[in-house]
Every structure is written in structure tokens, then in C-alpha cells.
Amino acid sequence: MNNLVKNFFKFSILIAAMLFCLGFSSPSVGKSTISPNFSQGIDYLRQEKYQEAIVQFTQVINDKSQWMAFAYSNRCLAHLQLNNNQAAKRDCEKALDMNSDNMEAYLNKGLADYRMENYHQSLAAYQEVIKRQKGDYRAYYNQGLVHFQLGNYQQALNSYDQALEIDQDYSLEHKTLIYHDRALAHLKLEDFSRAIANLTHLLILNPKNEQAYYQRGYAYQKSGDHKAAFQDFTEVITLNPQSTNAYINRGISAAILGFQDFAWQNFKIALAQFEEQNNQIGYKQTLKLMLKFKQVTSNSYQPPIG
Predict the structure, then answer these.
(1) N or C: at which end does the chain have fewer Cβ atoms within 10 angstroms?
(2) Is the model's pLDDT at 294 over the cut of 90?
(3) CATH code, 34-116
(4) Quick one: DSSP state of residue 22?
């Protein structure tokens, strides 16, 4: 039956979290002295009207006013929100050429590079923020995400821990992000007990987090606790009956626990869902898994017909 566990890895997905929220740049002067176009651009950013914001900041830049550096920085942010990452990077670099102390421009440039998989450049941007402004927890957290992508999992953990130490007043969303990403790093390091601890903490904060149940189930399964894995994959299915991979992995744990009929039923549900999704790769992998299941259990189990 242990041969089934090898097939589990094909269905286990580690999902990276998003970077912490971005910030716009604004001069520390009274609103009455700010360029009307600049002020309108900021208002559009707050209203999430990013294309309109770009038009306003472009006008400020074309006017060559004293707000140009801030206009470039905020146009960078608007481009990021529209996933125009190359344009965002160019604008942030322009902003930094004009004002090298603009921490938001470094942070946003880091995100643009991160999205384009320029991880070393992204890391350099966050490290520049940390060098100049050691109390910015966003830079530490985002640095951790870059280290994770580079495969530096222990360094990622160190960065996440520093982010937690700097700011204890996190929102619930930010706390769950950090515990989730610490768990992912521990999983990569095959430190399953610490991964489980972080995911359990996350689920105390947010007991409806489907992703956390799935990944804790993965950790339990990897550590050989198939009863706990079975329970977590059941929670995933309760929260989302369309979570096809959860049926696969619950079936694997059920088979190892001796619940062979139940395992077969889960594999069949997954197979049907993959077919509905027109997911040929998942469908073929599930067929192979079911064949392996029949081979391993041939002496003790005959799958029901139908």
C-alpha cells in the first residue's frame, strides 16, 4: 500500500501567498499646494480606477512639475495594479532616479521584478529598504517570499520571523499570510512538525481556510499520520466539494487506513471531476493511480462494479 503514497506528490500543490499591500507616494505638504492632476490621480488610486490614475499622473509628468518624482512612483503603482509590470518597473526606476529615498518606489519595484521572476533584482530592492528603514516589516516579509522562490527556505523563514518581530499589530489577513508562508518553507525543508504547528495556528485564526487544511493534510500524510490527513482532506471537501485533489489524497489515506471501498469511491469522484474539467493530465494520472490501487490490493480487494 505504501506504493500509493508515491502517487500523492503528483496532486500536492504548494501555493505561494501574495506580497503585502502596496503603498502610494505623496509629498508631505498641504493638499491645496499639490498639483490638481496629482491629487486627482491619488483619488483615482483610492477608488481603484487605475487607468484613469495613469492618465492623471502622465499629465503631471508631461507638465514637468515639481511632483514628477511622486507621479512616476504612483504611476508605477497603478501599472502594478493592472499587471503592467515592465511599465511599472520603468516608472519606479524613474522615481528613484529623482528621489533615492522613496521607500514605496523600492517596494513596488521589488514587486514588479518579483512578478517578472527577476528575483535577484527584487531581493536587492527589498534589501535596500531594510538598509535604509529597518522597521518596515513589509520589506522583510517580501524578502522572505523572494528567498522562497530562490530555494533559500531557511533564509525565507528568518525573514518571516523578522517581519513578525517588528510589528506585532498585524491584521488577521497579514498574520494568516505569514503563518501560511512559514508553513510552506517548513514543508520544503521537510520539517513537517513545524509546518503542522504553523498551519494549526493559522486555522485557529481562520478556521475556514481551505488551503491550510489541504497543506496540513499534506504534512500529516508525509509524516505518516494518515488518520489526521484523512480528517483534514475531509475538511477541505466540506469547504469545497470541487477540490478534486483532496478526493485523491483522502482516497490515498483511506486506502492506507484500510478503508478500501471508501478509497475507491474517492478516486472515482476525482476521475469524474477531472473529466468534467477537461483536465486530461489529471484524468490520466488518476487512472494510473486506480490501476496501481487494484494491483496493490488485488489479493484482498475487488473494486465494486459501476
Answers:
(1) C
(2) no
(3) 1.25.40.10
(4) P
CA distance linking residue 282 with residue 38, whole number of Å: 50
Instruction: List, in order, residues 6 or more apart from 180 with CB less than 8 Å away.
Output: 17, 198, 199, 202, 209, 211, 212, 215
* Closest by CA position to 254, among listed 231, 278, 282, 281: 231
The phi and psi torsions of 87 (rounded to 5 degrees) equal -65, -40
**Ranges of each domain in the chain:** 34-116, 242-299
Whether the model clears a pTM of 0.85, i.e. scores above it, the answer is: no
Distances (CA, A) of 182 to 64, 68, 125, 277: 45, 39, 22, 32
Q: Are 69 and 57 in contact (CB under 8 A)?
A: no
Distances in Å between the alpha carbon of 86 and those of 73, 79, 80, 90, 98?
Answer: 14, 9, 9, 6, 19
Q: What is the pLDDT of residue 89?
A: 97
Say if residue 33's pLDDT is above 90.
no
Q: What is the mean pLDDT of the chain?
A: 88
- In angstroms, the CA 283 to CA 248 distance is 11
pLDDT of residue 164: 86
Residue type (1 letter), 159 = S
CA pseudo-torsion sign 85, 90, 91, 97? positive
C-alpha grid cell for residue 103? 521607500
8 Å CB contact between 243 and 232: no
